[in-house]
TrEMBL record, chain A:
GO cellular component, as recorded: [Ni-Fe] hydrogenase complex; ferredoxin hydrogenase complex; plasma membrane
Protein's organism: Candidatus Kryptonium thompsonii
Entry binding sites for [4Fe-4S] cluster 2: H232, C235, C260, C266
Entry GO MF terms: 3 iron, 4 sulfur cluster binding; 4 iron, 4 sulfur cluster binding; electron transfer activity; ferredoxin hydrogenase activity; metal ion binding
Cofactor requirement: [4Fe-4S] cluster
UniProt binding sites for [3Fe-4S] cluster: C275, C294, C297
The keyword Protease appears for this protein: no
Domain Cytochrome-c3 hydrogenase C-terminal: start-end pairs: 227-308
Binding site for [4Fe-4S] cluster 1: C62, C65, C160, C194
Subunit structure of this chain's protein: Heterodimer of a large and a small subunit.
Name the record gives this protein: Hydrogenase small subunit
TrEMBL record, chain B:
GO BP term, example: respiratory electron transport chain
GO CC terms, sorted: plasma membrane
Residues covered by the Cytochrome b561 bacterial/Ni-hydrogenase domain: 19-225
Record-given protein name: Ni/Fe-hydrogenase 1 B-type cytochrome subunit
Membrane topology: Multi-pass membrane protein
Keywords from the named record: Cell membrane, Electron transport, Heme, Iron, Membrane, Metal-binding, Transmembrane, Transmembrane helix, Transport
Record field: transmembrane: 29-50, 71-89, 138-159, 191-212
Lineage of producing organism: Bacteria, Pseudomonadati, Candidatus Kryptoniota, Candidatus Kryptonium
Main localisation: membrane
């Protein structure tokens, strides 16, 4: 068997200088939240370890995660990135099609059994035997289970495969499920976001290559480095929040001056992601910077937390009302019931007194008679 | 002072019992202040109704102050609550912990009887221990205590995330995934706040009623510790059983 080329060899073959390679290593180390002494370890790993092949599977999703990934421009330009992680199968950008493409997948997986990384985009419909999503004549569940057998780790790219996004939103007619609910015997990393930031996807994969282990995960299986903090706590508009200066509605004076978007429904205070640090498209901007409230797309079931322009969603009960409306209703109900009870008590006591007085008078009269 | 002794003061027309000891009274008024501040600041944090007139964010710290106050009084409320929980066991004879027997039929019989008693507007005085709380009230306060605990857990979990891995995050961080994301945690925090407001409406109007119209000294007992019963009043044991006969 021919020796697999390393990341470094692949990069040099594509005409990238060693200087750029080292720059990539430095940046990635920083993204992963590691101290600078780890740079040499990252460099050594990328120089010596064979590139693990990555198979990218698309199920029930909109392919926005792919779009996000191919726009990754930091750490390196996109074509180099694809070389870096040896992307062997990805429906959106591969040349092969039909039977040819399917052959590549299964052959590649057989050859690298136990070593490849599976990146899954999209959730898996499970209702009616999973007929609502089929790839190459197989249902998505069969496909995923077969592909996962030899995987070293599974990366759930995007909200669909991590928590269930628009595909699993109520009423979920296809019975779609996120990946970690179907594959339970393999390490799964969730990279939620609709789409997730390209640098976050790449960073996680590089961590897998470099250290042969998953990055530190939180209880929702997200890498802590990127999903450890709220967007709100690193937001550049935080000063306006703390001051109490809020955009009341879109296009008002505050909106033009770039005040806090909390009152027009920003979910930044409840959303864990790296948007306000890493930002998007070469670090150009992120939703809040362009004047739009955060929708909380990397949180579980964010589509069901409607309406989206409200920082605390409606209570998911029949009739959908805000927590405040329900609460006010409850408080008014209590007040009315208590008031009625008290009035009734007072009236009853008053009538009793009157009766007693009457009875007393009658007795008096009887005595007199 | 012996824990299970009953102190009684008789005057010409009423009998007064010393029910609430100083600890209970002080902790009650701390709660009143803390809950008041928490609800006010909580409302501001949820729906900021006041905007400073500043053009620049420096100088004005309205929201930051509200959040700090909310956090400060949450800590006061929690510590007070923890001490009060200890006092369930260590307080005087009117502490109700040893009567909180939800697994016994009598507990539910009494609660049901008392509920009917309230709805039919009788307000019967019966056993001596009900000078403190009757079973229905005990049940209500335990539920209130649980609600306050959920408020504490959800609140500290959200506050802890300011410093991931810090003290509060380590202690309460597990709450957020439990409810499926912080958005749900907020919603629950809000709904329970309304529940507590509902309790307060009932609580305040009833103590005023029982003070003014029924002369049971409910309101003044939180200041003096003394509750009032009519002169020559005798306790009745298990009135709900007598009625069935």
């Amino acid at each position: 068997m021919q020796k697999q080329e390393t990341f470094y060899e692949a990069v040099r073959r594509n005409g990238i200088s060693r200087r750029d390679f080292l720059r990539f290593c430095f940046l990635t180390t920083a993204y992963l939240g590691l101290e600078s002494s780890m740079v040499s370890k990252v460099v050594r790993a990328l120089e010596s370890k064979p590139r693990p092949p990555v198979f990218w599977l698309n199920f029930a999703a909109c392919t926005c995660c792919t779009e996000s990934l191919v726009r990754s421009s930091r750490p390196l330009i996109s074509d180099v990135l694809l070389t870096a992680i040896s992307l062997d199968y990805m429906e959106t950008i591969q040349v092969a099609a039909g039977h040819q493409a399917e052959e590549i997948v299964w052959e590649g997986m057989k050859k690298n059994f136990g070593n490849y990384i599976l990146a899954v985009e999209g959730s898996v419909p499970t209702k009616d035997g999973g007929v609502y999503c089929t790839v190459g004549g197989m249902t998505a569940i069969e496909y995923l289970k077969k592909a996962a057998q030899g995987a070293k780790a599974i990366i759930s790219v995007g909200s669909c495969s991590s928590f269930g996004c628009v595909t699993t939103a109520y009423p979920n007619p296809t019975g779609a499920k996120p990946i970690y609910k179907i594959i339970t015997d393999k390490p799964v990393v969730n990279i939620p976001g609709c789409p997730p930031i390209a640098e976050v996807i790449v960073g996680t994969i590089v961590h897998l290559i470099t250290f042969d282990s998953l990055p530190e995960l939180d209880s929702l299986k997200r890498p802590k480095v990127f999903y450890g903090q709220r967007i709100h706590d690193k937001c550049y508009r935080r000063a306006f929040f703390d001051a109490g200066m809020f955009v009341e509605k879109f296009d008002d004076e505050g909106a033009r001056k770039g005040w806090c978007l909390y009152k027009v429904g920003c979910r930044g205070p409840v959303t864990y992601n790296a948007c306000s640090i890493v930002k998007w498209n070469e670090g150009t901007s992120f939703p809040i910077q362009s004047g739009h409230p955060c929708l909380g797309c990397s949180e579980p079931d964010y589509w069901d937390k409607t309406p989206l322009y409200q920082h605390v969603a409606d209570v998911p009960l029949p009739g959908f009302a805000t927590a405040d409306e329900i609460g006010k209703g409850f408080a008014i109900g209590v007040a009315v019931a208590t008031g009625a009870h008290l009035v009734a008590s007072i009236v009853k006591k008053a009538t009793q007194k009157a009766k007693k007085a009457e009875v007393g008078e009658e007795k008096k009269q009887q005595k007199e008679e | 002072m012996q824990a299970n002794q009953i102190y009684r003061v008789e005057s010409e027309c009423v009998t007064r019992y010393y029910v609430w000891d100083a600890v209970v009274r002080v902790s009650h008024w701390i709660n009143v202040i803390a809950v008041g501040v928490l609800i006010f600041t909580g409302f501001y944090i949820s729906t900021p109704f006041y905007r400073p007139t500043a053009d620049e964010p420096f100088g004005a710290t309205v929201m930051a102050t509200m959040k700090n106050l909310h956090f400060l009084f949450a800590i006061i409320f929690t510590l007070n609550g923890l001490f009060r929980a200890y006092w369930f066991f260590a307080g005087n004879t009117y502490r109700q912990w040893f009567r909180f027997h939800i697994w016994k039929a009598d507990f539910w019989k009494e609660a049901w009887w008392k509920l009917k008693d309230y709805i039919t507007l009788r307000y019967t005085d019966y056993e001596l221990h009900t000078l403190g709380h009757n079973t229905l009230a005990t049940l209500t306060y335990v539920i209130l205590f649980l609600a306050a605990s959920v408020q504490g857990l959800t609140g500290f979990a959200m506050a802890g995330k300011i410093n991931p891995g810090g003290f509060f995050d380590t202690l309460f961080g597990w709450v957020i995934p439990l409810f499926g994301g912080e958005a749900n945690v907020r919603m629950i925090h809000k709904i329970i706040m309304w529940g507590i407001i509902g309790f307060m409406i009932h609580h305040i109007s009833f103590v005023i009623y029982l003070e003014v119209f029924r002369e049971k000294g409910m309101l003044s007992s939180m200041i003096t510790g003394l509750k009032t019963r009519p002169f020559g009043w005798e306790p009745v044991e298990k009135p709900w059983e007598k009625k069935e006969k």
